[in-house]
Structure formats: structure tokens, C-alpha cells
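In this supplementary section we document a worked example of the pipeline. Step one takes a protein sequence of length 208 as its only input; no multiple sequence alignment statistics are reported here. Step two produces a three-dimensional model, which step three serialises into C-alpha cells for compact storage. The input and output of this example are shown verbatim.
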Amino acid sequence: MNELTIMNQTCPIYKSAELNKATRKIFGAATEIKSRYFEIAATIAAVAAAKSYEADGFADVHAWTNAAFGIKKTTSYDMVRIGRDYIRQQLANGRVKGYETNLVPDGAPNFTSGQIVPLLSLGREKAGELVDDGEVTPDMSIREIKKVVKAIKESEKGGEPEKEGESVEAPEREEASEENAAVMVDVTDEKGGKYRVPYAVLILYRID
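The serialised model returned by step three reads:
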């Protein structure tokens, strides 16, 4: 058994009512963070837009997400961008029932957060064009999407394709690894509570 602490165990209390509301909302979603990633990203993006963190002395939204949830700055940046530019609400009877990406029509097969992350470096407009043209689809693997993104960047730079055995691509984000996506890890918190959590979720809170 891997004994890990995935988050702070006590929900912080802030001066800002909106920040408190957002913090409690994310803590409440933590046990099902994988399926509710888009909801959490949308909430963090809303905090960034409203600057609800300022009353409690945080320099930016990423300082709050790190202090409250242990989310690394690079992951927090990705979540803000996804929540701001790549998500729409799913409505049922006028109420929000969930969130999904806005890269495809409502009701169509959709993308996961892991598939979106490689597209962030291209920007929302270019990502939308790739999806509209069928060059990137929800049934593609993360690795396949990364290859498309890499080819586009090389083309824009006018560079030669890299030789076999040479790589200028940044190391893959471990949180997006397909091999790890289905791995479950047994977790014990500081109070002895036991959880079975997807590895892809735990890696969001890795601190070393």
C-alpha cells in the first residue's frame, strides 16, 4: 500500500466569501476529482477572473491553489486556461449538471483533460481549427495528439524534422500518461481514512 496525503486535511477559511465558497466547492469535489476535473478547472478560472484571492494576501490564483490544495503552479496554469477557454456547462432543466469541453458540438464524443493539455500551447483558436478539420479527435490517444502538436510547431518554426534518436520535445507530463491513467493507488490520510484514487489524480498533487 502506498501511504500518501493527497491534500490538506482541513479546509482553510479566508476573508473573501467568494474564495471560501470556491475552496469548499473544490474540497467537496476532491474525492471524484477525475470525473469533475472540468468543474474544478472552471471554478479556479472563475476565482482568477474575480481575483477573489486578493483579500487573503495571495499574489495570484496559483498561490491560492498551491496553499489550499497543493497544486503545482504549472498544473494550476493549465487548469485556469482549460477552465477559461475550453469548457462549457452541461445544462438539464435549466440547471448545471456538469461540464465538458467546447471543442466539439454538444452531445458529441468529447475530450478528456489529458487530451486537452497538449493543445494548450497552440492556443484555443488553433486547437479549434484542428478539431474542426478532423486532425485531432476525441478517439486519439494523448501520444497521438502530442505528435500532431509537435509537427505543427516544427512546421511553424521551419525546422528540419528531428533525427531518429534525437529529441527536443520536453519530457512528457506524468499526469497525462496514458499508461498511468487506469492505475489505482490506495491512499491513507493523516486521520487513518483509506481511499482508492486514480494515479492520474494523485500526480496533480505530487510535491517532490
